């Protein structure tokens, strides 16, 4: 809720003289940075007992939020592409536009994999005692352990030293890997497009 309020305030505060696409991206940055910050404060401060209690609770709204953020992230990347391909306003600094575009790409990428942290935690701890991911050692995994799994999948499209022992999590990881490949490919393509635009 806080991230929505802040992004709404940013959209109102941003000068109306600015074209629509940059305003949308600046608003998205406000939402994404706020949401990611809140998530990572939770990740660093919540202990395993609290994680088990929170992650094991079934909450139907989580699926909606998860789907919304993923769709919004790809919509943001598509908006960046449109802006890079069609924005030619000489009154606005090119470097300012590049900064907005790069910030939007990074925040979209980080937001998707941050959301997967909580998704994996829920899938793991919804069963008493936790199961589905086999981490080395005997300690119960916390959010940082799920972050490790999520971002390794996001960067390499594969698991590392954590074994998947649940069919449900295996299917989620399959979709996560495919999503990561598409997202990373889009980011690389946009980066090349931005660099080419700066050169010319």
Automatic annotation (TrEMBL):
Whether Protein biosynthesis counts among this entry's keywords is: no
InterPro entries associated with the record: DUF1345 (IPR009781)
Q: Which UniProt keywords apply?
A: Membrane, Transmembrane, Transmembrane helix
Give the domain of life. Bacteria
Pfam assignment, any one: DUF1345
Residues annotated as transmembrane = 26-52, 64-87, 93-118, 173-199
Q: Which residues form the signal peptide?
A: none
Q: What is this protein called?
A: DUF1345 domain-containing protein
UniProt source species: Elizabethkingia bruuniana
């Amino acid at each position: 809720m806080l991230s929505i309020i802040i992004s709404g305030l940013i959209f109102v505060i941003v000068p109306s003289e600015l074209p629509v696409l940059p305003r949308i991206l600046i608003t998205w940055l406000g939402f994404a940075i706020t949401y990611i910050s809140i998530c990572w404060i939770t990740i660093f401060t919540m202990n395993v007992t609290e994680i088990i209690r929170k992650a094991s609770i079934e909450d139907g709204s989580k699926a909606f939020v998860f789907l919304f953020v993923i769709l919004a992230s790809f919509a943001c990347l598509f908006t960046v592409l449109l802006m890079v391909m069609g924005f030619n306003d000489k009154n606005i600094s090119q470097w300012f536009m590049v900064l907005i575009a790069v910030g939007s790409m990074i925040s979209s990428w980080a937001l998707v994999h941050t959301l997967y942290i909580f998704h994996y935690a829920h899938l793991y701890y919804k069963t008493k005692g936790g199961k589905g991911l086999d981490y080395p050692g005997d300690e119960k995994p916390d959010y940082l352990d799920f972050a490790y799994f999520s971002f390794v999948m996001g960067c390499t499209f594969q698991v590392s030293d954590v074994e998947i022992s649940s069919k449900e999590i295996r299917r989620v990881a399959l979709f996560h890997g495919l999503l990561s490949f598409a997202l990373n490919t889009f980011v690389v393509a946009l980066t090349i497009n931005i660099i080419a635009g700066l050169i010319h």
